[in-house]
Specification:
By secondary structure, this protein is of the alpha/beta class. Helices cover 61% and strands 9% of the residues.
């Protein structure tokens, strides 16, 4: 100690030490407090400035600069004055302050990351509650106890070094016992701190997730965020991934800062009590300078990591789309296109991640050199320096030297601990910067959610809103006042009726759909809405329900403000089917707790009996939870939607084409039931027969205009209309648009565009429905009277047991086999890049081990130099240490870079392997529909589990290579010092410790797998909500979905808490066995070595002993650290086994989906038919020209028979109509035809393909979609692919492939064939491509004109315009785009699965007529009688129990109808096929069927 310090009084010395400790250790906390205070003060000043600007009327868009303020305001509840201020500023921004607001937003984002982290911290601190603060206090107390324990351990170990040097066995025994107890206490403290840190992280995640959920499910924010606002992409990614990540990192950061602050305070005080304060000042100065330099050089990691998470979310969303639309993609044959899109997104993610890794590598070199290795050299100077001076220098006796060694040991621990503590505090800012990207994303999510929950959607209209619409919206918003305001400038008021008063409907993108609508719907007066697709029919309901902003006018309705109420019930075309029990479906959106009285089973049966769904009770029971959207057909779902309506019995019902998939009889039956119930209906429909049940018809023309048609009396449902009252509106005043009254209707005049002409035809058909067709059932009877036919075939009686439907049964492998298979995937060949990287990793590990050995030797040399007081040798040692620091600073970041690069490369290999299998043979559909275990979370495994697995495996490999090299290296060095005895003790301890830990290790494999499964279920519920957001919003099911999502989240948290508790007990044993107890073994080996050493009473001999003891301690410590790493690897392997099982389980399922059915899978009681003879012909079997089912059993994967021994042939030019009740198997017929379901009995013929028989591959490549050019499938809701408007028509082809198809391009002989995707064929020059693209667009324009959608080209911005088409287009427009897709590909046969039921009757007939003109033979599922005349045969599936009937169709006024002749020929073909085993041998040519007379050619 310095003389001047010794002269001070003890009390003054202690005060000086305490002040220095507070200055150093509290510096970080003081800085944090200062910056937080400054941030709060700045926020207050900004808020006051904003309020002043709002009060004075100053302009300038400020709304974009409130990310953090919005979160804090949202946490505190907000102030009404702040709301008005923000609303007024948003209006001013809409008037022209967009550029200024954008500039301010950019300035805010430039430094807003740290503010976002501070905002989240403040939010969590305000809501931690008593339990949270208790955990935090306990964590702080543990940090103090840990520091005290560490200090005592340092003193004891210094004394142990002294007793070892003096070979004092009694003192050594006493000290080693104390050290053992301290190590046990340290293990308990360490594990407890990890437990409390994990508990805080879970609590913070629960708080933050609950707060986000509260905003997300408030006011239909979940719908507006994804369908209206569009500022936040992949909200579920932020909730499920970003929130837990930032909570884990913040909890770890808080723990490290508490420990660092405690250590810094305590050890600064300790250091200044026995040496000069300049040493503590030297540490602080170095840390601050190095920290400032690294902060100045630090790249924007927050922005880089935020972008990486965004790309991860986009990649994940693409996989979720494939899972949601798997059946449509499989039917279209779109696996190649979807795989290309996913590969493109994954490649962009990998490229960005690789760039981030390179940035982290070079910055890691700088950071490690300054803060770690060069700092360690500076620490050596500070450690050894005092022992060369007068403060700690001692006499030359042996006891004095032993005392100096003891002090040096303790001093080393103090300086290193102080250095690490200050480095942690200095490096915390960089860790926060890394978190800022996640924090910005979460704050943005909460800000947008808060804005939308306050109904401020109008403040964020898309940039495409311009011109008159922008001024209209801005003016309407500026005039909006009072509590009854809607989302825009209109107003809502409560009434017992529904009334629109001068309401203008504008889409979120600014397109005007309806202008100045005025109408009133009184109780008991039903309203029918009709008009062309895309004219705004459903959009009226979106405005009525508050999903879209009301920009102009007034709406009066039951309930308050802009929400739907229990008096208005919405029934969409595809009812939302929640996951739950039958009761949950019926009472939705209520829950069992919301019911005034329990729903009895008998009442539930009565409700289902009304809609013919009583059999669901027997099939599923009352308590079974089912994903009903996947179990029921669309017709069954629609009937369930009507049962839901009957249960709730509201005053008003909004029926949005909710009976399009049921028969006309059932539709009229529903109408009568609703009428008797007293519910007033507002109906959207394209069926003219429903006019009889409505008093008012609202006709929209698709360009803003509208007409109303009223009845003056209603004597009966079928009575014709009397002279109507008329009311018209539209663009301009009624005086500007004359109304022509004709046929009892009011028709608006003006310029007649194509869309208005379509609307006029449609409304004319509706208004004359009762006059010409007598309405209702009479219309259907009149239609049926014109059709004649005969029964061609019926189903035979069911005899014997049914064939067993095979399922995908993966061959499960053991862990070692799975690991071996995974290694073969990760290393596709010996000379791959990853092999070289692994070799480089091993080389760097060996180099680092050599450096560690050299550093250990230098540590011993430094002790010897002190004992000998050789300053010159010590300075040379410092110079060598600096050089070694630079080498270490390069090696360590290079190792981390190689580890991350290995993980990225392995992820690329594993993803490519799984994706190739996933999109091959439509396995993405098969593993879900036909798998024995139902892989419903394949996207979770492909994205999250693969990424986690590769990161963990690369870390495991690095963790294995290093300890193995260390053990081999340092075992050899230890053998040189201690002989075989020391090595034997080391390995005996390793084996015993490994056996003990293995015995007490929990089943981390199962726990990890269950954790991933629960996290996947939580994410799935969020993804499902995003998909069905509109239906949930209309039902008002936000609270119900919130409860379901919260339940899934609660399961996740409960499991994680259980795992955390198990880890606490195991962590104590693990820390003690692998980290603490080895220190005691090290001291035992040191004492043995000292006892055997021949010590002389000379400074040289004592210096050699001190060097050897120091070097031996380093060698043994490195050996035991390596042993601890190996034990840690064992635990990691246990945890990794769960992830490996999930990923390789998916691999096993996908591999099983690639192969033919095994013979034993088709074994069943009974025998096959003679048609099995075709299987022996294999690929050499002749190709067919027609579609035929011969003796086919249609059986679901759940073993339910739908059609028994079905035999029907569809010849070119003679279409087939498939009818039957809902759930009878109509769509299932096409699943078997398309190869999506297995064929277990009979033969199927498809054009251009060999016969498919029982035992054929389930999903043969090219068996679906347009691969053969023979068939094309059009579902009811066509899959809207990602891409441009052009891509919607040419799907699944790329633009180049479609252009080549149009111009008939073929690669010249000898040149390469066309590539995949957009890779052109050889010979495809730029000039040829340009002309082909022009020809393609011209043909697409003609097709769009055929389907009456040409206006989309101009409205959407041309062929290259991109949008979320499933949200942008109405269902009818999507269906017509599906037909346009059919016309473009122009197959021989079109499979039409109720794909026109959302279009008007005239459009539907025109589409079928166009298909006939193009030579497309259609196989149609439909409930519309008007389509009968377009078909030659009708297949009726009677009851869904196997019974069917095939009838011919002949129009009564066409006795020579070719369709009748075709039906007879089809019957003959079937008979001949059955006789000849599935082949027709007319004139020696297989399938040489003569086309019937009158058949049209394509």
């Amino acid at each position: 100690m310095q003389p001047w310090l010794l002269q001070l009084p003890p009390a003054r010395r202690r005060m000086l030490a305490l002040g220095a400790a507070l200055l150093v250790g509290g510096g970080g906390a003081a800085a944090v407090a200062y910056y937080r205070t400054a941030a709060v003060a700045a926020a207050v000043r900004r808020r006051e400035a904003r309020a002043a600007l709002a009060h004075s009327g100053a302009s300038g868009g400020q709304a974009e600069g409130e990310a953090a303020a919005a979160l804090i305001d949202g946490a505190d509840g907000g102030k009404a004055g702040d709301e008005d201020s923000r609303r007024k500023k948003a209006v001013r921004k809409g008037k022209g302050g967009e550029s200024g607001g954008a500039e301010k937003g950019r300035r805010r984002k430039k430094g807003g990351g740290m503010a976002s982290v501070g905002t989240i911290c403040s939010f969590l601190a305000a809501r931690m509650g008593e339990k949270g603060w208790q955990r935090l206090a306990a964590l702080a107390a543990i940090a103090v106890v840990r520091t005290v324990l560490s200090n005592r351990l340092a003193r004891v170990q210094g004394l142990l070094f002294r007793s070892t040097f003096l070979r004092n066995v009694p003192a050594f025994t006493r000290l080693i016992t104390e050290n053992l107890l301290l190590c046990l206490a340290h293990s308990l403290i360490f594990s407890s701190s990890k437990f409390l840190t994990g508990s805080l992280s879970l609590q913070w995640r629960a708080l933050l997730t609950a707060a986000i959920h509260k905003l997300y499910f408030k006011g239909m924010v979940y719908y507006r965020m994804s369908h209206v606002d569009k500022r936040v992409e992949s909200a579920e990614q932020r909730i499920v991934s970003d929130v837990p990540h930032i909570c884990n990192e913040l909890a770890d950061l808080l723990h490290d800062l508490l420990v660092a602050a405690t250590d810094a305070t305590f050890y600064t005080y300790s250091l200044t009590t026995y040496t000069h304060p300049k040493y503590a000042g030297g540490i602080l100065a170095y840390v601050l300078c190095a920290g400032a330099l690294t902060s100045a050089l630090a790249p924007p990691f927050g922005k880089l990591l935020g972008k990486e998470q965004q790309q991860e979310g986009e990649y994940r969303q693409l996989h979720a789309r494939v899972r949601t639309h798997s059946e449509s993609i499989a039917f279209y044959g779109g696996h190649g296109r979807e795989g290309a899109l996913i590969s493109q997104a994954f490649s962009a993610l990998v490229k960005h991640s690789a760039g981030v890794l390179r940035t982290q590598w070079w910055f890691g070199i700088v950071q490690d050199f300054l803060l770690k290795y060069c700092g360690a050299t500076w620490a050596v100077v500070l450690i050894i320096g005092p022992f060369f001076g007068a403060s700690l220098q001692t006499e030359g006796s042996r006891d004095a030297r032993a005392e100096m060694l003891s002090r040096m040991r303790y001093h080393t621990s103090v300086v290193i601990a102080l250095f690490q503590a200050m480095g942690t505090i200095a490096g915390s800012s960089r860790r926060i910067i890394r978190l800022s990207g996640y924090a910005d994303r979460i704050c943005e999510l909460m800000q947008v959610a808060r804005d939308l929950s306050q109904q401020d959607v109008h403040m964020h209209t898309q940039p495409s809103v311009a011109g008159e619409d922008t001024r209209l919206i801005a003016a309407a918003q500026q005039d909006a006042q009072g509590a009854g305001e809607g989302d825009g400038g209109g107003k809502f008021s409560e009434a017992k009726y529904i009334q629109f008063d001068s309401v203008t409907v504008v889409t979120p993108s600014g397109a005007k759909l309806v202008d100045g609508l005025t109408l009133r719907v009184n109780p008991g007066e039903n309203l029918l809405i009709t008009g062309p697709n895309g004219s705004g029919k459903s959009s009226l309901f979106r405005v009525l329900g508050g999903l879209w902003p009301l920009v102009e006018g007034r709406i009066s309705k039951p309930g308050r403000a802009a929400d739907l109420s229990h008096d208005i019930f919405y029934v969409p075309q595809r009812p939302y089917m929640a996951i739950g029990t039958l009761q949950d479906q019926l009472v939705y959106p209520l829950t069992a707790n919301d019911l005034p009285e329990p729903l009895e089973e008998e009442r539930l049966r009565d409700m289902l009996r009304v809609v013919d769904l009583e059999d669901l009770v027997e099939r599923y029971g009352m308590e079974r939870e089912v994903n009903w959207g996947e179990e029921l057909s669309l017709g069954q779902q629609q009937r369930f939607g009507m049962a839901r309506l009957f249960y709730h019995a509201p005053a008003f019902a909004i029926l949005d084409e909710c009976t399009s998939a049921v028969t006309t009889d059932m539709e009229e039956r529903f109408c009568r039931l609703v009428e008797r119930m007293g519910t007033t209906c507002v109906t959207i429909s394209h069926r003219p027969a429903l006019v009889a049940f409505h008093e008012t018809v609202l006709a929209l023309d698709g360009e803003g205009g509208w007409t109303l048609h009223y009845k003056t009396s209603r004597s009966s449902p079928g009575s014709p209309s009397s002279i109507p009252q008329q009311l018209s509106g539209g663009e301009g005043s009624p005086e500007e648009h004359a109304v022509v009254v004709a046929g009892g209707a009011s028709v608006r005049g003006g310029e007649l565009t194509e869309r208005k002409a379509d609307a006029q035809v449609n409304v004319t058909r509706f208004l004359h429905a009762t006059d010409e067709h007598m309405g209702g059932k009479a219309a259907q009877q009149a239609e049926e009277e014109t059709v004649e036919g005969e029964v061609l075939a019926v189903s035979p009686p069911i005899e014997g047991p049914l064939p067993i439907v095979p399922h995908i049964r993966p061959k499960k492998r053991g862990f070692s086999a799975r690991l071996n298979a995974m290694i073969r995937i990760l290393f596709p060949k010996l000379g791959c890049v990853q092999t070289a990287q692994l070799g480089m990793l091993a080389f760097l590990v060996v180099a680092r081990t050599g450096l560690s050995d050299r550093i250990a030797s230098l540590n011993g040399t430094s002790v010897r130099n002190v004992l000998q007081q050789d300053k010159v040798a010590f300075m040379r040692l410092i110079a060598v240490s600096i050089l070694q620091s630079f080498a270490s600073a390069v090696i360590a970041p290079s190792l981390r870079h190689l580890q991350s690069s290995l993980a990225l490369g392995w992820r690329r290999h594993l993803t490519a392997h799984l994706t190739r299998l996933y999109f091959r043979h439509n396995a993405f559909y098969k593993v879900v529909a036909l798998g024995t275990e139902g892989l419903t979370d394949a996207d979770q495994r492909l994205c999250d589990d693969v990424s986690r697995l590769c990161s963990d495996v690369s870390g495991l490999v690095s963790s294995l290579v290093k300890p193995i090299v260390d053990i081999l290296w340092f075992t050899w060095r230890m053998r040189c010092l201690t002989g075989q005895r020391g090595v034997g003790i080391l390995y005996a301890y390793m084996l015993l410790g490994l056996g003990f830990l293995r015995a007490i290790t929990p089943d981390f494999s199962s726990l990890t797998a269950e954790q991933h499964r629960l996290e996947g279920a939580f994410r799935f519920m969020h993804s499902r909500l995003r998909t069905h957001a509109e239906s949930v919003a209309f039902f008002g099911g936000g609270d119900r979905e919130h409860a379901v999502v919260a339940d899934r989240f609660a399961r996740v948290m409960e499991h994680r808490r259980g795992v955390l508790s198990r880890r606490w007990f195991f962590g104590i044993a693990d820390e003690f066995i692998t980290k603490q107890l080895p220190h005691n073994v090290t001291w035992g080996l040191s004492m043995l070595y000292a006892m055997d050493y021949q010590l002389a009473d000379t400074s040289h001999s004592q210096g050699v002993l001190a060097h050897d003891l120091r070097f031996l301690a380093s060698v043994v410590s490195h050996s035991f650290l390596a042993f601890g790493d190996i034990l840690e690897c064992y635990r990691k392997v246990q945890e990794l086994a769960g992830t490996i099982g999930r990923v390789m389980g998916l691999d096993e399922a996908l591999l099983a989906a690639q192969h033919d059915l095994a013979p034993h899978m088709l074994q069943r009681p009974g025998s096959f038919t003679g048609l099995m003879a075709l299987a022996s012909q294999g690929p050499d079997a002749p190709a067919a020209h027609e579609v035929a089912f011969v003796g086919v059993d249609v059986i679901t994967p759940a073993q339910k028979l739908l059609a028994h021994k079905l035999s029907v042939a569809v010849l070119p030019g003679h279409s087939l109509l498939v009818t039957g009740p809902n759930g009878s198997g109509k769509s299932s017929l096409f699943r078997v035809l398309g190869g999506l379901w297995p064929l277990v009995e009979g033969t199927i013929l498809k054009p251009g393909l060999p016969p498919m028989t029982a035992g054929s591959m389930l999903l043969a490549e090219g068996a679906t979609g347009i691969a053969t050019g023979g068939m094309f499938y059009v579902p009811q809701r066509p899959y809207a692919a990602l891409g441009s408007l052009r891509d919607q028509i040419i799907y699944p082809l790329s633009r180049v492939d479609a252009a080549q198809k149009v111009v008939g391009f073929r690669a010249p002989a000898g040149l390469a064939a066309a590539g995949k995707g957009d890779t052109p064929a050889a010979g495809w020059t730029a000039e040829v491509e340009a002309s082909a693209f022009v020809a393609l667009d011209e043909q697409l324009a003609c097709i769009m004109e055929d389907v009456r959608l040409l206006y989309l080209v101009g409205r959407g911005g041309g062929w290259d315009a991109t949008a979320t088409w499933e949200d942008t287009l109405s269902l009818g427009e999507q269906q017509r785009l599906g037909m346009a897709r059919l016309f473009f590909h122009r197959p021989k046969f079109g499979i039409l699965d109720e794909c026109t039921n959302a279009t008007s009757v005239d459009v539907e007939e025109a589409l079928y007529a166009r298909a006939k003109a193009l030579g497309i033979t259609v196989i149609t599922i439909s409930q519309r009688p008007a389509l009968v005349r377009f078909h030659a045969q009708e297949l009726r599936l009677i009851d869904g129990e196997g019974t069917w009937e095939l009838r011919s169709i002949r129009m009564a006024n066409r006795a020579d109808s070719p369709r009748a002749d075709g039906a007879v020929r089809s019957k003959v073909v079937i008979e001949e096929l059955a006789v000849n085993g599935g082949t027709e041998t007319s004139k020696g040519s297989s399938y040489a069927t003569v086309a019937p007379a009158g058949a049209e050619e394509a």
